[in-house]
Backbone:
C-alpha cells in the first residue's frame, strides 16, 4: 500500500494547522500548569538533595569525624610546559568508600612525609571542609596516626 505524499501547499496547510493549534493551547491556564510542573520538578530535586545531606550528618561542614583506612597519594602533571602539578590524597576504608582528604605536610613529617605514608593504613581525625573546585566535601586532617592493627597494602 502506498501512502499519498503531501504537496507543498498541503505541507504548509498542515504546518499552519499545527501552529494554530499550539497557539490555542498556550492559554494562561496551560502556561501556569507547565510552570507548576517545572517548579514541582525543581523542588522535588532540591528536596531529595537536602534529604541526602540530612541522611549523612557526618558530612555536614565542620562536623568532626574519624576514619581508618589506606592512605593513597596520586600525583598528576598539568599540561606540557605548564609546570603545574597536583597531589590528590584519599583514604579508602575497609568497605571500599573513598574519602578525599587534605593533609598538611607538617602532620605527615613525623611519619617520613606524605610519600612515606602512601599506601599505609592510618587513622585520621578531622572536620569536613569545602575545597574550591571540588564537588564533594573534603576531610581536613587535624590528627593522624599509623594503624598497626590492620593489613597493609603490599608491592
Residues:
Amino acid at each position: 500500500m502506498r501512502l499519498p505524499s503531501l504537496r507543498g501547499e498541503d505541507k504548509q496547510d498542515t504546518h499552519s494547522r499545527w501552529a494554530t493549534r499550539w497557539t490555542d493551547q498556550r492559554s494562561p491556564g496551560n502556561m501556569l500548569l507547565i510552570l507548576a510542573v517545572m517548579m514541582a520538578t525543581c523542588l522535588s530535586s532540591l528536596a531529595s538533595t537536602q534529604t541526602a545531606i540530612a541522611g549523612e550528618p557526618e558530612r555536614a561542614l565542620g562536623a568532626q569525624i574519624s576514619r581508618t583506612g589506606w592512605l593513597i597519594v596520586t600525583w598528576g602533571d598539568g599540561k606540557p610546559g605548564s609546570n603545574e602539578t597536583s597531589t590528590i590524597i584519599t583514604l579508602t576504608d575497609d568497605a571500599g568508600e573513598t574519602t578525599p582528604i587534605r593533609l598538611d605536610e607538617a602532620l605527615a613529617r613525623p611519619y617520613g612525609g606524605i610519600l612515606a605514608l602512601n599506601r599505609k593504613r592510618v587513622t585520621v581525625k578531622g572536620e569536613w571542609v569545602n575545597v574550591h573546585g571540588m564537588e564533594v566535601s573534603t576531610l581536613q586532617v587535624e590528627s593522624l596516626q599509623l594503624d598497626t592493627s590492620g593489613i597493609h597494602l603490599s608491592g
Q: What stands out?
A: Residues 45-55 have pLDDT under 50 and may be disordered.
